[in-house]
Design a protein that fits this description.
Strand order of the largest sheet: 1-2-7-6
Radius of gyration: 21 Å
Order of helices and strands: HEEEEEEE
Helix content: 10-25%
Strand content: 35-45%
Distance between the termini: 65 Å
Shape: extended
Number of strands: 7
Oligomer: single chain
Largest sheet: 4 strands, antiparallel
Number of helices: 1
């Protein structure tokens, strides 16, 4: 094979692989029903720790804090809820729908320790979960 022909062949394979990756990515965020009523998607999250608390920022634009749940379960922070297309948009012609819809759940392992409070709030389109560290002898959740 000539060098030019080899480059074209490799470029062709790369384009096919990129196309396959894009299709898989879109399938992962496609609206639909998960088996058994489970979550359809996982939102991205950041976790930061200070001396007195653990802060978890979950990217959930368009999701009301009251439609979310944040609990500690077996050393994991479990954040779950649902993003639903607003009723006024359900009859609209959709040109692009990239934000995943439906049930979501994210499980994040927590740093070792005890926590005495779980607080949810909204910050710039994200869910902020604040876990206050318990003092020694405080409650474990």
């Amino acid at each position: 094979m000539t060098s030019d022909r080899s480059r074209k062949w490799m470029w062709g394979d790369a384009v096919v692989l990129l196309d396959q990756m894009q299709r898989l990515n879109h399938q992962g965020f496609a609206p639909g029903r998960a088996a058994g009523g489970g979550a359809n998607w996982e939102p991205p999250a950041d976790m930061l720790e200070t001396d007195h608390e653990v802060l978890v920022l979950v990217a959930l634009p368009g999701v009301d804090v009251e439609q979310t749940e944040a609990i500690i379960e077996d050393g994991m922070l479990v954040v779950r809820g649902r993003r639903i297309l607003p009723a006024e948009l359900r009859t609209a012609r959709i040109h692009r729908l990239e934000l995943p819809q439906g049930r979501f759940e994210r499980r994040l392992p927590l740093p070792a320790g005890r926590y005495d409070a779980v607080h949810r709030s909204s910050v710039n389109g994200c869910l902020l979960v604040t876990l206050h560290k318990a003092s020694r002898g405080g409650a474990r959740r």
